[in-house]
C-alpha cells in the first residue's frame, strides 16, 4: 500500500523559509509525480506545483513561481517543498500527493498534511 | 486567468440525489480537462472519488458517479448518506502541466 508521510508542523517568522518533506513508501517513487497542495484555514485547496522524480523536473503554479522550490531525492523516496519569503497568508496545511499524469491527471494518494504557521 | 467554478454550498436529504458541478469562468469543460473529484472532511486529507471524468477510485461506492453535463463536469451522489456531508473539490487539467482546483462545494445532508 502506498503511503506518503510528511514532516511535522512548523512555526516560522515572516520573511523566513520553510521546507516540508514527504517520504513515499509502498510504490515505485520514480514512476510517478509528486504534487504539493495547500489549504489555508477555512479555505479551499490550491495546487502549488509538482516534480517528476525520475527526471528531477519541476513545474509550478504561476502564483508561486519564484517563491517555491520542489525537489526530490530518489535515494530516499522523499520529495521536498520549500517556500521562501513567508508571509502570514502562507499559514496553511501543506499536502503532498502522488499524481498520475500519463493518460489522466489526478491525485491518488495523499500525505497527512503539515501545518505551517507564519507568525511574528 | 481562467477560474474553476463550483457551487459554494448544496443541501440534500438523506436518500436523495444531488449533482454538484464544476465549470469554467470562460469556456466549457470537456473530457480533455480530465476532471477529477475529491471529498474532504474537516481535519482530514482529501480522498479521491472520481478521475478522468467518470472513473471511480478504488473503494469508492457506486453511489458516486461522474459525468459531463452540458458545459460542466458533474459529480452525482445517489442515495445520499449522512457521512457524505463533506466538502467536495473538482480539479481540471488546464494544459502545460497545470492543474487548478475549484473553490469547493460544502454539502449538507439533512
Could you walk me through the main structural features you see in this protein, from its secondary elements to its overall organization?
The complex is a heterodimer of chains A (120) and B (110). In chain A, 0% of the residues lie in helices and 54% in strands. By secondary structure, chain A is mostly beta strands. Chain B is built from no helices and eleven strands. Chain B is an all-beta fold. Classes of the chains: A mainly beta (120), B mainly beta (110). Chains A and B meet through strand 5, strand 9 and strand 10 of A and strand 4, strand 5, strand 9 and strand 10 of B.
In short:
The complex is a heterodimer of chains A (120) and B (110). Chain A is an all-beta fold and 120 residues long.
Low-confidence stretches of chain A: none
Shape of chain B: globular
Report the oligomer: heterodimer
Helix segment count of chain B? 0
N-C termini distance of chain A: 40 Å
User: What is the β-strand count of chain A?
Assistant: 11
Overall mean pLDDT of chain B: 96
* Main sheet specs of chain A: 7 strands, mixed
Distance between the termini of chain B: 36 Å
Percent of residues in helices of chain B comes to under 10%
Work out the helicity level of chain A.
Answer: under 10%
Structural class of chain B: mainly beta
Number of helices of chain A: 0
> Got a strand count of chain B?
11
Strand proportion of chain B, as a percent range, falls in: over 45%
**General shape of chain A:** globular
**Strand-residue proportion of chain A:** over 45%
Uncertain residue segments of chain B:
none
